[in-house]
Every structure is written in structure tokens, then in C-alpha cells.
């Protein structure tokens, strides 16, 4: 699937990857994730996409965003939009698909392999366009959750499908709730 001399880039749809890992019952260790793909090829760039609530005093994702930025990830963020739906529930909207697609298309001439961490079927045309430009595309998501987190049309379009659950031992860490109290205190 991967060749040592190929130039590769990671495109991580933050909320989609988080939801897939959560559905499988583990947390991603982003340091291990980056190291794993540095071993698989010449990592040109690792993008992480997420929307942020700007008006919140404290955003639970802010420490992760800061850590990723400091540790070699190219962070692409934008303010999330808050609204109230017809049932009166507070909702947050922050789609990063366009930003991811634009970055992938801009970088494509300098890539051999793109790794998309998302199961969103809206990315099928992007995968197809990258392939027309000669870029191989691997998609990382899961079919092992109920319901599966990857759209069938995206999985079929990709050159390779990588089951997120198969990477658990390489890039995962146990969820915080499952840790022993002593281990959590030492961490």
C-alpha cells in the first residue's frame, strides 16, 4: 500500500476521525499517528481540520489544537457557527470540507499519495480528482462501527481503504474513562 520513497500527505477531518475513534472505543495518539506515517513514506504535510467555538471561555478542543500546531501538524481552523434548530436545541456547525479539498488539490502536484482520514461521502469527487492527477488515495475510517462511519461510495473510490480499528494498536491509546485511577493520576 505504501512505498518508502513516495511523498505523502495526511488530510485529517478532525471531527470525523474523532467520531470514528469514539465509536470504536479508543482515543487517537497524534504523536504516534504522525510517526506511523513518517515510517510509511516521506511525509510532506499533515493537515488537521477543525472548527472552533470562538466565543467560548474554554474550548475542550483548544489544548489538542495547540498541541498539534506545536508538534508539526498544519492546523486549519475556522469559527464554528452556533444556531438553534427548530426543536429549540443548540447546534454547532463547522464544516471544513472545502478547506480540505482546496489544500489537497493545491498540494496534489507535489504528492504521490494522499491519506484522507474521513468517511464522509462528500469527499468522493475529491478522491476522484486527485486520482486523475496521478495521486494514489488511501482513506482511513471504519466499517466496524454501527452504523459504519465510511460512505460506501468513498470506500469504493479510494485506491486503499484502511480500517481505523486495524490501526488501534499502532496509533491508539485507551479512552480516559477506562484508565485505572492510579494510572490517570500518574499521567
Automatic annotation (TrEMBL):
Residues 7-165 form the NYN domain. InterPro entries: LabA, NYN. It holds the Pfam family NYN. CDD domains: PIN_LabA. GO terms for molecular function: RNA nuclease activity. PANTHER family: SLR0755 PROTEIN. This is NYN domain-containing protein.
Amino acid at each position: 500500500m505504501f512505498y518508502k520513497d513516495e511523498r505523502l500527505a495526511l488530510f485529517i477531518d478532525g471531527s470525523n476521525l474523532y467520531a470514528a475513534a469514539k465509536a470504536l472505543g479508543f482515543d487517537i495518539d497524534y504523536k504516534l499517528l504522525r510517526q506511523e506515517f513518517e515510517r510509511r513514506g516521506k511525509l510532506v504535510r499533515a493537515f488537521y481540520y477543525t472548527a472552533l467555538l470562538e466565543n467560548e471561555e474554554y474550548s475542550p478542543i483548544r489544548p489538542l489544537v495547540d498541541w498539534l500546531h506545536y508538534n508539526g501538524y498544519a492546523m486549519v481552523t475556522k469559527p464554528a457557527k452556533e444556531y438553534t434548530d427548530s426543536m429549540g436545541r443548540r447546534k454547532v456547525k463547522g464544516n471544513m470540507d472545502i478547506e480540505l479539498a482546496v489544500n489537497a488539490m493545491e498540494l496534489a502536484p507535489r504528492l504521490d499519495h494522499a491519506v484522507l482520514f474521513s468517511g464522509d461521502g462528500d469527499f468522493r469527487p475529491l478522491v476522484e480528482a486527485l486520482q486523475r492527477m496521478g495521486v494514489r488515495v488511501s482513506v482511513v475510517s471504519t466499517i466496524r462501527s454501527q452504523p459504519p462511519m465510511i460512505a460506501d461510495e468513498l470506500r469504493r473510490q479510494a485506491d486503499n481503504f484502511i480500517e481505523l480499528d486495524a490501526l488501534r494498536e499502532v496509533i491508539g491509546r485507551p479512552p480516559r474513562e477506562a484508565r485505572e485511577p492510579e494510572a490517570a493520576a500518574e499521567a
